[in-house]
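User: Okay, second chain of the day. Same drill as before: sequence in, structure tokens out.
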Amino acid sequence: MSVNKSVVIVVTLTMVSSFSGCTLFNRTNFSLISSYIYDDDGFASLQINFNTSDKMTLKVFGPVGEVLFLDDYHRGAHTAVAYLDEYRATPPPGRYEVKAYDENENVIFENELFFGSQNISIAEVIEYWWLEDGKYSLLGLNITLINHGNLPLYPYNVDVQIDNKRSSAFFLPTVILPYQSSNTYCFVHIDGISMGNRVLELFLKNSKGENIADIAYNVTPSENVAELKFRWRYMGNKNLVLPDVEFLYDHYSSLERLALEDYAAYVFDGYDDKYVDLIVGRLQSITDSSTDVAFINFAASFVQHLEYVEDVTESDYPRYPFESLKDAKGDCEDKAILIASILDSSGYNVSLLKLPSHVAVGVHLDESATTYDYYIEEYYFLETTSSGWPCGKIPSEHEGLSNVTIYAIKQRPLLTHSWKNATHYSGSDGSDYIKMEIVVENLGRETANDFKIRGAFFSQHDIYYNQETTQAYSLAAGSKKIVKMTMDVPQGISTILKTQIYLNDKIVHERESLSSFP
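Assistant: Same drill. Structure tokens below.
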């Protein structure tokens, strides 16, 4: 499910000019074209389109006077976007101010905006029920929400109670725009529900843990979830039946693929964690494996039996676990991601092993756990592409390799970044610089503390010029941050622009421009 970016409320701003003295010569004129509140990829934002006759500064102030936005502009038409709060957070209610200043810090434009408190109601709830052995399992919710306020709303998670059984779940990322309604989905697993009328209670919360809506109503479970059936041979015939949750597949299949070689990000994604837990429980119920290695080999046999389809596209297209499960096929990284998710959910210390033209799984066990040797560090090799490969057995083509990268599946941050806006400015006064907005995202499981972003222009001999470094930041798992950076373009030499994220003084992600400068 992608975040809706459509405009929903137009904010009319009244221009107030302010100047001193008895002459109008050299006065800076500010002309508002349009402005509106909208959602920008998970950030509640105020966009202001305007003209200015000379250099000026634009500021946006929050309800307690804090500066939310500040930037300088030269003569011409411009678009400014002020982010009013953090990722997937509805801004606090109150008075906001927009002000423009000339070079002498005179106010040439000002306006006040008033936003109310969060006001959301639940219009409809559709439950997803799976029936097995005479008992129902609640496997998901489709909730229609109405936003009665004038700011975007971001439902974050929900607490669910039925028959004195409780669970919680994260909503798939979505936004409810002002004065509009929208559907939001979550996978929640509560099993062992008997037939008949029940009371279902829901408590919706935002990212700050505040209750934003709740409802209690009577419901009679009725099966509406299809099944995924798997059959394979491993020490006899094996049968596994899992629920086919369509909204999970729709969500993951619609996502853009990540520009990362660290495929652990596909395991870290938390919106299917409860489903992967369900897989583990079902696998454990159909095996009597008495040792760690026995269960690992059994779980691996399930993934190994799925059809191996080599990716023939120009670039890899890694899949999230539920995609490979639903399609019952995948290439080496797809199947490695799936079994790594299952074993990680089972409590094992695993990693993804990136080999030349191949991806496998590393399993950390005691060195006496099997008759095989460690493949790299303290990880046994686990092959997933075809059946018959127990934990520790290595295909001959992968033996003795030294250029193997380990991507551990553990509590750690995983930072990536993209360029949201990068504009090249060249002034008549000889100025030549780049202004950038960089979106940093933590795809890991742990807060990233004290990371930095560095930008610089690099020559063909890898010599850097005009380096700029941001302050240190912290970023929670599953969150995003927008960072602004301005860099002067070096003259007299051909360069490309690179931005790099440093975590613990190591480069963890890098991007570079396709074109050269100046």
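Confidence is low (pLDDT under 50) at residues 1-25.

User: Thanks, on to the next one.
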